[in-house]
Amino acid sequence: MNFNSPKQIVEVVGLSAQARTKNSTSTTLVLAFLGGAYIALGGLLAIVIGGGVPGISAENPGISKFLMGATFPVGLMLVAIAGGELFTGNTAYFIPPVASGRLKLAQMLRNWGLVYLGNFFGALFVAYFVGYLTGALTAEPWKEFTINIANVKTTAPFYKVFFKGMACNWFVAIAMWLAYASNHISGKILGIWFPIMAFVAMGFEHCIANMFFIPSAMLLGAPITWGDFIVNNLIPATLGNIVGGSILVGLLYWYAYGEKKI
Q: What residue intervals traverse the membrane (predicted)?
């Protein structure tokens, strides 16, 4: 059989989560740094391609959104295939083994905290050294495009960012579920591409990607403070991502296919 069944996926992601708890703190942080950097690199590519067609964006904004969605998935492909720790995916992986009693809640929370921190540093590294210092985003139309993205993300109401975050990680976690379904790299790439393209094109909120998008805009002169970023976007996006990954994917699939406590 060339792919894993839904029940097998739940088993595989549970084993993956268990293996992650055996990594040292330093290893987890390094892998998380790489995960955040890879997502940021996907975000940078999405801006360069999707933001580089202002004429098309003005006349056919859906095409610009599709171009961003079509290119952003490279980041998650790197995480899934080359290796890396990503907070949003881990919100789903850990639920089946915790619900089945094979992992402790404290082990899950330790991983989530370390990975979130490492992802933040990786995303900021790419924003400053790759997006800003290289000049990749400092020229027009990319500068204005990046600032506009950040302005939209930091001025939306809390509830809207939360629900966009929930929808986003529903897609992201399912993308990783599909990646774990395949035993071949080509299948993993296809499984990742469609859901990630969809959430980006629809403008949903990914907390790790926003660790790149919004600080990049701040570096480019956007009138956004760290307080604006954290309170107006990062907190509600993160909470929404947790609900989308842990409940809508991890918990529901564990309930359907996972090992139950007796």
A: 29-50, 70-93, 114-133, 161-180, 192-214, 234-256
